[in-house]
Amino acid sequence: MAWKSTTFKKSAVGERKAVPDAISRAVDKHRDAMSSVIRDAKDLADERRRTLNSIQDPELKRSAAR
Amino acid sequence: MAKETAIGGPRRAFVAFAGGGAKGLIHVGALRALEDRNVAFHGLAGTSAGSIVATLKAAGFSSRELLDPDGGPTLMDQLSAIDPQIKRATDIFGKAGWARVRAFRWAAAYAWLLCPCGVLAGIALSVGLIFAGASRSSLAIVAMVAVTILVACLAILGARFLIGGLADVHRFRAALATLLQRRMFPEEPDRVVSMGDFGKDGRPTLKIVSANLSKRRLQLFSPERTPEVAAADAVAASICLPIIFQPWRINRSTFVDGGIVSNLPAWPFDEERELDPQALTIAVEIADTSSTPLVHRFNWLPSAVRTALFGSGELNLRVSGQAEQLVLESSLHLLQFDLTLEQARQEVRDGEAAALFRLDKRLFRRPELYHNACEVTRGLAEDVIESALGIKAMRVRVAIAVPDKDYHHSLRLRFSSGYEANADEAMLMPIAGSVVGTAWCARESRFELAPFPDEFNLPGDANRLRRKCVWPDMAWQLCIPVVDDAHRARFTVQISGDAKLPVTNPRLEYAITEMESSVKDFFNLIIKELSELEDDHGLEEYHL
Fold this sequence. Notes:
The structure holds two protein chains of two kinds.
Chain A: E1 3-4, H1 20-28, H2 31-54, H3 58-65
Chain B: E1 11-17, H1 25-36, E2 39-47, H2 49-58, H3 63-66, H4 75-82, H5 95-109, H6 111-135, H7 138-164, H8 170-184, E3 205-212, E4 217-221, H9 231-239, E5 248-250, E6 253-257, H10 270-275, E7 280-287, H11 300-310, H12 313-319, E8 324-329, H13 341-362, H14 365-389, E9 396-402, E10 410-417, E11 428-430, H15 435-442, E12 445-449, H16 464-469, E13 476-483, E14 489-497, H17 506-529
Parallel strand pairs in B: 1-2, 1-7, 2-3, 7-8
Antiparallel strand pairs in B: 3-4, 3-6, 5-6, 9-10, 9-14, 10-11, 12-13, 13-14
Helix pairs in contact in B: 1-13, 2-9, 4-8, 6-7, 8-9, 14-17
């Protein structure tokens, strides 16, 4: 288990297996939204690369990329 | 500090433009970028070249009307319609004035050569006079005296222009005054547009910086301090770069370029910014990147002028507190007013692209993206808790905590969703004494239920006010540090809610594990895509 707590008492590992479906479904419900944000991040990065390459003044290009 | 503002609507902003001579052309590009990102200009300030852009924008001109890189009429066309002798930027100096400025530009570039030549010429003249006297030849004496007088006259003339100014701004001042009147009060041809005409009737306020030599202090022209001063006079007083322009006189005071006292005037908006803390303050600075010569006693003057104009950017920003500094560099020379229209258009195009590149990273598209990521995380957290416990998740908030530049003991809740109604939005959290700080330090996620143990509850007197700002209903908090491929901590995702959760429950335990894992994967993918946008040593830099 990757997280720690001083105020929450963790139970035995075996008990967790009884309830994964509902929680997994709740997470899956948001996969599309997460993918959309990640796609936006990729688009943003691509567009920024194009913008940077379009700058002809070397000093302005340098200051943009800094 | 970048303040998260409502996504979508116009962003209120106070914008300051620095001086920079011909380099100021990139302000038009920066202005285009700000207009493109739907910035609502509530106040404009400028020094020198920046004062021209600030004044024209405050008067209602768009960047397109100043210089549209896609073609069309320019500001010069409008000035030309007022004064037909102004056809290009160099005409502002007058024909003789521009010739002198061009000669000065050339001389400044070769000062390293001209200074020794001048010394040698002086020695040669002295030696020549001695030899001519010794030869007792009247012709030689007359010739040498004539040459000496000629050289002395040229030197005196040169010194007169260097001290008194190579050009004057009367022509530009007159055309600008008419331009402002025609735009702001077209029905009143005799109206003189004054500083008091800004900051009312829907116009943004305008502040212009100059150096008042008569009073030996900085002069701020503004609607409050100098309502009667003509706006064109204030601009003229601000742009009179020593040596290049004759000092400008208003009433009985003499002014020179404001760049020698404050080249990046973001500070005049202190009161407005305190009254409207959500508004952005953007300071557009022009950095000087020209090659640095070996400065010695004979060529220090050009370097002194450059240092006065460009050397105090950080200081000016510190005076103004937290503001967003957009630093742009240009290959243009300070006095390169003789570039072609196509070169000017390209410079504006480049300035816009560079400004957008930086603005999107710090203020617009990237913060919006992180805001959206917080929104998605919020929905996920609500659903996971509800599905695990079968209870309403109540209210959930998500923030991304990032260290500010040069801050080593705290994290800023920079991007967030659900914090709008709370005082801890954008709060600075100490690393020691908080759940988020502990998770950040240990690179380990942490889930805590309220009441938090003392070590996580912002202990000590230093946190007294901070404790008052913390969301009083907070019942739980999950903090997830996000680490990149190089094992550097980039930020911590802080999720909190007000639903009372059990202190032990296997379903909740599983839900927290699922949530922690999903959120970590989600943000890891985001920072991977944005890796080129992030700074090497953290998510945020102070500069845009």
